[in-house]
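To make the argument concrete, we let one protein speak, a sequence paired with a row of structure tokens, as a model reads it:
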Amino acid sequence: MVIFAAALAVIWVISKLEIIVVPVLLALILSALLVPVVDWLDLRRVPRGAAVSLVLLGGFAILGGILAFVISQFIVGLPDLVKQVERSIDSSRRWLIEGPAHLRREQIDNAGNAAIEALRNNQAKLTSGAISTAATITELLTGAVLVLFTLIFFLYGGRNIWQYVVKIVPVPARDRVLEAGRAGYSSLIGYVRATFLVALTDAIGVGTGLAIMGCRSRCRWPRWCSWVPSSRCWVR
């Protein structure tokens, strides 16, 4: 019962400090992916600060290259996408007119006009929704800055930070907690590395398969969507 109450208390605190807890957890996961590279450079006598800077700059360069490629491919495939949407709308209209519904063209036009009128009548709600969206974007930008700030500290002195945190634990259990934290972080590194390799394999496999089948306009997206584990199910 005490453990259950403590778990509820932790969940409540996390929910209240979500703007801080989530960026810290994301920074921890990213550090598990990048800290092996920083350690490798550190062993080659590269200063720790310079190693962190090189790894972050390299990561930003790779991420920027991926985003630039995805955006360029989206722009190239946008005309085909517009044509597909237009064909889908036309086929849907024909099905409503010639299919089991047997609707008249005037009824479909009236339904479209009613939808437009409903949007006009709810401009206030749409405006408030836009304001809330802007607030959400601001929170996301704040979270991104916190992730970057925390990630720098984790990469530069994560071990020292953990040793300092462990000092709040009673002395008899301090060594066990210290080793448990190190073992848990090593497991996290292995998990992130395995997820990265699986995502890379999925991206290459799905993109190659679609390219072989001739889906040129679609093979651009799975390669990059497959990098996100939750997106792999959608791609498949």
